[in-house]
Amino acid sequence: MAILPANPHIAIAVVIDGRRAQEYQPPWLLSPPESNRRHGLPIAKCYIESQSQKAFKIQCRVSPRFSFPPDTDLLLVSVFVDGHLFDARVFPKTELDGLGCIEEIGHSQRDPTDPSSDWYNMTFQKLTMEDADQKTINADSQRIKTVGIIRVVVGVAKSETRSPKAPRFGDGKRHEPLRTSRNGLAHNDLEQGLGTRFDDGESNKFLEFSQKVLVLNNLDQGHGTSYHKIDDAFDSVTLPCRNRQALGRFVFYYRPHDVLHAEGILSPHFVNHDAHGMRLSTQDDRVSIMSNGRIAIDLSRDP
Hints:
Layout: E1 2-4, E2 7-16, E3 19-20, H1 27-30, E4 37-38, E5 41-49, E6 55-62, E7 74-81, E8 84-92, E9 100-105, E10 107-109, E11 119-126, E12 128-130, H2 134-143, E13 149-159, E14 174-175, E15 178-179, H3 187-190, E16 208-210, H4 211-216, E17 223-230, E18 234-235, E19 241-255, H5 257-262, E20 287-289, E21 295-297
């Protein structure tokens, strides 16, 4: 799992088919140091291997040793895929104090303001080529800059409601954690198009690029992300917040195996060994299921 040395109590990983993706950190991702900071924020960067037509999720792991800055009581985790906001989750302090927590973000509602809006998951897909005129080439040249990149921005905020808790519903739907609105994201998260909602799964046009753009960016064999409607229905609540503070950013560059191999990234010397933390299951007596369905882990105890 990717970890920020400045804040080691939050770890992020990409989970593909139930397994955490191997993370690679070649030297050019680690230096110079200033390249790993943006707007004064620490950044952890790595490559992962994507697999076409495989669904994936983002796993967030919070240690019980994580402490909230003054005047904050919410942990915010915002997931951006290919330049689009996929979801923004909220973890209340009241549910994290003294407990570890593992949360997976793998589905989101197309329009969180509409309770009847459909839900989608994320799937890696091959990019496709098309013949294009110069106008399309110019547009694709900008669009390609965020393709193949998963960004996870972690921050804190102050709730505008008293003692926020995950909602309880009695309508038979599966429970979902709290969310924050797009307005709850920091300005830096929304720049360069980050913050627009993901495209729905009705069309894969956003995976089509001009051949020239793909070749120039070494992505002619690359992957992007498509979104597929799921049958599950979930309940969720959007939580207003203020006093937002960003803590750091995690960046995962996802590429097919052949591309990573050709670029020499799959060397065992580049494996991020920090990514191999404890493997926990609900058979571990430190693990419990909370009332809201989350997994809670007491990491202060020995296994």
